[in-house]
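Chapter summary example.
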Amino acid sequence: MKSDAQIQRDILDELQWEPSIEANEIGATFNEGVATLTGHASTYHEKVMAERVTKRIHGVKAVANEIEVRIHGFGERTDADIAKSAIDALKWKLTVPDDRIKASVTKGWVTLEGEVDWYYQKEAAEEAIRYLPGVRGVVDQIAIKPGVSAAEVKSRIEAAFHRSADIDAKAIRVETHDRKVTLRGNVHSFSERQEAERTAWAAPGVKQVENLISVIPVGR
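The structure predicted for these 220 residues follows.
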């Protein structure tokens, strides 16, 4: 069983290993399952990647991402320029119904609004904006249209869990009410917890996923 100090070292080593991250500008602490990232990044994408990398580490149950995006030199852009780029990026992303999404920009922060049929479309819209120069953050307020009944949503999610090689379906309980899905149970890694949530979001019409799954690493 690793100590908090050892897991902190693993996080820092993994950040150094990831080529898309300037790890020397990012710090990490770890305490009782929670990793806290600090420092600054030159792009919003780099901030997101640092969080993803940290979630891969065995023993990490949650991540507090306090990295500040600092844009200098040629990366600096006006809100108007970012807004125009956002419109183009949403058009180019084939999985995004761009005619149903609006983007507004304030001090580098992009807010997305509108309504789509599937969660993957909402996710794709945010991903399209994430890589744009000058973006400091994304607020995704895109709504998802109602889909099938709660009982059918539950059945589809459970079936997807059983098909997945990355999820122990017997360890997770699925509860549905209206368009909200609640996941409960215990898994052995943060990545398995995350995969269960991603699978639940893939069900049609799901508006909210509350992930109450606990991460209990092997040996603890």
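To summarize the output: DSSP finds six helices and eleven strands in the chain.
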